[in-house]
TrEMBL record:
Protein name: Pyridoxal-phosphate dependent enzyme
Organism: Kocuria soli
Superkingdom: Bacteria
Domain (Tryptophan synthase beta chain-like PALP) ranges: 19-302
InterPro entries noted in UniProt: Cys_Synth/Cystath_Beta-Synth, P-phosphate_BS, TrpB-like_PALP, TrpB-like_PALP_sf
Keywords noted in UniProt: Pyridoxal phosphate
Length: 353
């Protein structure tokens, strides 16, 4: 006798650009084991996008917007500054849209990320000296972008730092998906910032739909966003050395600044507790979330952004030798910070809070 079996299949899409979004929202039940924390913590795992990061969303949004408006045509060239993730996303999207891509990165970019951008057909330009006036590598990258725009006829810059299509991708996509999954019942949303497209898009959705959700922006120590003090930043992907155009429109309810040590410890804690291998900025989000929960352990529901995957960071954030040589931190010091974030007791039984 034949038995009919129903097999659930994923939808067929035309290309990987159409597969961006609809990432899972995962309950984190092991990250903060303290009994007094009653909050449901949910993670929006953007590393499940085809390009392994939340940058897939603005990459497709900005590129298609430029093509639809006629600013860019197939066969043209996009020149963009990136710390890495947007570079991967744009390299793929440009290949699928028959557009040439030149990616300007700096010396902090992970080697595997740069290799992936090049493998997807892009030309790489590496900036290894900071801007003389500001000492900032991001500013130097943007200066190189301007030079290349003059050298390459008909080239365009999507300018992720001020492009409304960047934030719109997270308003129409990321935050909408979170709101729909939670029925709009969300006390706090925690996300890291660099261009502030993610946090700005989340704010737009929250405001437009009357959600009573507090928005927490996580920024790096040394970033100038939201009134920060400029300083050296070794880890890529979070913070900025100048006030981005998009950030001028963003008013987070709270800004929490995190150190590189906290980012590394938070990322390792997430991997070891929840099996989510994420990048440095997500480690900062984990640390900031711990601070929020210590202060308000009886929140009903909180969501965090997992901005990207951790594979490109295996030789840096997850490598003890690299952390020791570049940040002067021992494995024991990182372990101590991991315990502090988790709120675990010390050997004498006292809390590390």
């Amino acid at each position: 006798m034949l038995i009919a079996v129903s097999i659930s299949r994923s939808p067929i899409v035309d290309d990987l650009c159409a597969a961006v979004g609809s990432t899972p929202l995962v309950r984190l039940s092991r990250l903060f084991p303290r009994a007094e924390i009653r909050t449901e913590v949910l993670a929006k795992v953007e590393s499940m996008n085809p390009g392994w990061s939340a940058k897939d969303r603005p990459a497709v949004s900005m590129l298609d917007d430029a093509l639809n408006r006629g600013v860019l045509a197939p066969g043209g060239t996009v020149i963009e500054s990136s710390s890495g993730n947007l570079g991967i996303s744009l390299a793929r999207a440009c290949t699928l849209r028959n557009v040439h891509f030149v990616c300007v990165v700096d010396s902090r970019a992970n080697r595997s990320t740069v290799a992936a951008i090049r493998a997807l057909g892009a030309r790489i330009e590496v900036v290894d000296q900071p801007d003389p006036a500001t000492g900032d590598l991001l500013t130097a990258r943007l200066a190189r972008v301007r030079q290349l725009l003059e050298e390459i006829p008909g080239s365009v810059n999507l300018y992720q730092y001020g492009n409304p299509a960047n934030a719109r991708a997270h308003c129409d996509g990321t935050m909408r998906e979170i709101a729909e999954a939670t029925g709009g019942q969300l006390d706090v949303m925690v996300a890291a910032c660099s261009t502030t497209g993610t946090i700005g898009g989340c704010q737009s959705y929250i405001t437009e739909h009357g959600m009573q959700t507090e928005l927490v922006a996580v920024d790096a120590v040394g970033s100038v966003l939201f009134g920060g003090t400029p300083g050296a930043r070794l880890l890529p992907g979070m913070g900025a050395g100048f006030v981005t155009d998009l950030s001028r429109e963003v008013r987070p309810d709270r800004v929490i600044r995190v150190s590189e040590r906290q980012c590394i410890a938070g990322a390792r804690l997430l991997a070891q507790r929840e099996g989510i291998l994420a990048g440095a900025s997500t480690g900062g989000v984990v640390c900031a979330t711990a601070q929020v929960l210590r202060e308000r352990p009886h929140l009903s529901r909180l969501a965090v952004m997992v901005h990207d995957g951790g594979l490109p960071y295996l030789e840096t954030v997850y490598d003890d030798d690299w952390v020791r040589e570049n940040l002067g931190l021992t494995p024991e010091e990182i372990e101590t910070t991991m315990d502090e974030i988790a709120g675990l007791p010390t050997n004498d039984g006292t809390d590390r809070d």
